[in-house]
């Protein structure tokens, strides 16, 4: 298994762009939910993006990786990725897009712990753990400032589903890192995951009777954005990064997504911002900076 590179300027820049994209996706899905259920949206976009990803694999002559050696881990990673979409889609029925985004991005913490215990090159050093703790505390503080869940009992279920989605994402990352898919082309890994999301999220929508569709121009725009930009281009880029860089450190950088997500919720859905969120957002960003930049600099000085 090849060693993963530390985060450099290129990876950090790409991650900022990805986080901007991912930060808008829950808001976009919730915005289009009156025309199509969130779970059905996730299933449909995944199926369409899977076809595009398969085309990329054939264009690059990477289809040979779709074989018996990658089938079992592919099914496993597809199932966990699909469960993430099922849980997140259903969570949007009960809670706000901001809650889903904030809770969903506790996944990097879960993944970092598991990966750090299993792989030497994924271990976070003490200074980085401090940054992770600060960032996680910021996420918690930002969430606590969004309102009293006791006043909205349904939000408890939505929040729990969001955490289940985060756990599924973390397990997916762990499987991806520890299987033959770790060295497979990004198109192959993504194809397996999108197929799993299509089957599970689409199947859940049918099972729950969430198949009503009200065709509108806005729904078409949202589905196009989710399919081409979110589920296809951004995920393909993400898995390409995972092949080159430390997954735990990339996960820490993804803490920017909740900030972008809540800002998008404020701008597009009219959600309110409060002092707790402002403080929590600063803690998230500060923790990211500490965890992703301070240690490499210290390491370079120590080995100079």
TrEMBL record:
Annotated transmembrane regions: 12-33, 39-58, 70-88, 100-117, 129-145, 157-176, 188-206, 218-238, 250-270, 276-295
Major localization class: membrane
Pfam families in the cross-refs: EamA
Domain of life: Bacteria
Subcellular location: Membrane
Membrane topology: Multi-pass membrane protein
UniProt keyword annotations, A-Z: Membrane, Transmembrane, Transmembrane helix
Family statement drawn from the similarity comment of this UniProt entry: Belongs to the EamA transporter family.
Name by which UniProt lists this protein: EamA domain-containing protein
Species the sequence originates in: Novosphingobium nitrogenifigens DSM 19370
């Amino acid at each position: 298994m090849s060693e993963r590179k530390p985060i450099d300027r290129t990876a950090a820049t790409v991650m900022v762009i990805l986080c901007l994209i991912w930060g808008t996706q829950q808001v976009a899905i919730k915005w289009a939910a009156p025309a199509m259920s969130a779970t059905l949206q996730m299933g449909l976009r995944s199926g369409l993006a899977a076809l595009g990803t398969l085309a990329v694999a054939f264009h690059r002559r990477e289809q040979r990786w779709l074989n018996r050696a990658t089938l079992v881990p592919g099914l496993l990673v597809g199932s966990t990725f699909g469960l993430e979409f099922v849980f997140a889609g259903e969570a949007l029925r009960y809670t706000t897009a901001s809650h889903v985004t904030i809770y969903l991005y506790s996944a990097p913490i879960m993944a970092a712990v598991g990966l750090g215990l299993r792989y030497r090159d994924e271990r976070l050093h003490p200074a980085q753990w401090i940054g992770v703790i600060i960032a996680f505390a910021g996420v918690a503080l930002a969430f606590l400032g969004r309102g009293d869940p006791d006043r909205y009992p349904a939000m408890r279920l939505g929040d729990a589903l969001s955490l289940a989605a985060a756990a599924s994402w973390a397990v997916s990352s762990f499987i991806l890192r520890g299987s033959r898919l770790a060295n497979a082309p990004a198109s192959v890994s993504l194809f397996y995951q999108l197929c799993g999301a299509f089957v599970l999220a689409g199947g859940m929508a049918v099972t729950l009777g969430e198949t009503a569709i009200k065709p509108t121009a806005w729904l078409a725009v949202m589905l196009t954005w989710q399919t081409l930009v979110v589920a296809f281009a951004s995920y393909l880029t993400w898995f390409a990064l995972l092949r080159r860089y430390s997954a735990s450190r990339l996960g820490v950088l993804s803490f920017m997504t909740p900030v972008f997500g809540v800002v998008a919720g404020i701008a597009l859905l009219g959600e309110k911002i409060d002092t707790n969120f402002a403080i929590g957002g600063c803690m998230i960003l500060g923790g990211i900076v500490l965890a992703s930049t301070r240690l490499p600099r210290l390491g370079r000085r120590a080995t100079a």
